[in-house]
Amino acid sequence: MTGKKSTEDLASMFMNFGKDMNLPAPDLEALVERHRKNLQALEEATKAAGSGATTILSRQREMVQEAMAEISQMAEKMKAGGDPKEMMSAQADFARKSFEAALKNTSEIAGLAQKSGAESFKVLQASMQETLEELRDAMTKPGKK
């Protein structure tokens, strides 16, 4: 029982510390509201990231479909036969176009990912800025208890 009494005394000491020092009491309603806003910002950031991922996946699917169509066309040309030099030239042209398309597509996907990440970060950054401003305002307001 002595352990419980000393714990209560210690807790009371900390609880009364702020009162004894005339420190302002925290505004619990404002803290709860700020937490709600932070959760809302996190939800918005998650939605932006999800939307970006959906856009990326959709575009990648389109890119694969375009590549498959080009491969099918190339295969049809190869079936027809013809001059070996022309076939080698067509294969080299196809390889070059495939490489260029891969570079372009990779750049496009990277841009989409960067845009999505930037949008998510912007939402979180704005929330952090609001939190800091509210904290600064709370610390500079005189006499609020």
Uncertain spans: none
Mean pLDDT: 83
Percentage of helical residues?
over 70%
Question: What does the main sheet amount to?
Answer: none
Order of helices and strands: HHH
Give the strand tally: 0
> What structural class do the secondary elements suggest?
mainly alpha
How much is the radius of gyration in Å? Answer: 31 Å
Number of helices: 3
The separation of the N and C termini measures: 35 Å
Strand content: under 5%
Given the C-alpha coordinates, what overall shape results? rod-shaped
Structure description:
This protein has 145 residues and is mainly α. It has three helices and no strands. Helix 2 runs antiparallel to helix 3 (84-140). The longest helix has 57 residues, at 84-140. The relative contact order is 0.12. The mean pLDDT is 83.
Which tags fit this structure?
3 helices; about 90% helix; about 140 residues; mainly alpha
Topology, pairings included?
Layout: H1 2-20, H2 28-80, H3 84-140
Helix pairs in contact: 2-3
Provide a compact summary of the structure.
The chain is mainly alpha-helical. The chain contains 3 helices and no strands.
